[in-house]
TrEMBL record:
Gene3D superfamilies: P-loop containing nucleotide triphosphate hydrolases. Pathway: Metabolic intermediate biosynthesis; chorismate biosynthesis; chorismate from D-erythrose 4-phosphate and phosphoenolpyruvate: step 5/7. This is Shikimate kinase. It is an enzyme of class 2 (transferase). Keywords: Amino-acid biosynthesis, Aromatic amino acid biosynthesis, ATP-binding, Cytoplasm, Kinase, Magnesium, Metal-binding, Nucleotide-binding, Transferase. Belongs to the shikimate kinase family. Binds 1 Mg(2+) ion per subunit. It comes from the Bacteria. Its cofactor is Mg(2+). It is found in: Cytoplasm. NCBIfam families: PRK13946.1.
Amino acid sequence: MGARLKKTIALVGLMGAGKTAVGTALARKLDVPFRDSDAEIVAAANMSIAEIFARDGEAFFRARESQVIARLLDGPPGVLSTGGGAFLSEVNRAAISARGVSVWLDADLDLLWNRVRHKATRPLLQTADPRGTLARLYDERKPFYALADLVVKADPRYSIEDMADKVLDALRTRPDVLEGM
Ligand SMILES: Nc1ncnc2c1ncn2[C@@H]1O[C@H](COP(=O)(O)OP(=O)(O)OP(=O)(O)O)[C@@H](O)[C@H]1O
Ligand SMILES: O=C(O)C1=C[C@@H](O)[C@@H](O)[C@H](O)C1
Ligand SMILES: [Mg+2]
């Protein structure tokens, strides 16, 4: 598409917001590297996220997540999909704002629930009332996600490609991030 990416685009938001799916499409459109902090942690540990939580605990996962995010931000600009809890950490927010731009994929609770309900891969939702847990996380985390530089609202009618285009639209206001749009 001829645009030049000058800073890493970090996608943030709750489980199911589309960070991995939209991030992959966005990186393809921009012809830049795609990285996913969850996937990096899983590959390095050779364990699933659920296994890491069960064996080593959430605090261990969060420490790894911060290390991985710092390392990925240190490389050439690209698209970085963060884990759903990453943007709650002030350390991670500072690292992202120093080297990149944060974009919140803001999906409402019904949409999130429809996307995550059939998968058992999210350890935080292994509770007696996973929808209630997701609702609580949504309320608790919204103020943190709202600290992102840009917001792109999700909608059930928007495809993954549509969402990637909406991120590009939002970046039109940021020539310091994307030049030549
Ligand atoms: N715009 C969309 N239209 C249709 N399906 C979508 C859309 N965005 C995401 N999905 C689907 O919803 C599911 C969750 O998306 P994804 O895994 O990208 O979320 P995530 O934000 O990375 O979540 P997590 O924090 O758990 O990694 C996937 O099956 C994905 O293909
Ligand atoms: O919302 C969260 O806290 C999480 C989301 C996933 O991306 C994973 O990072 C992990 O399951 C924790
Ligand atoms: Mg993901």
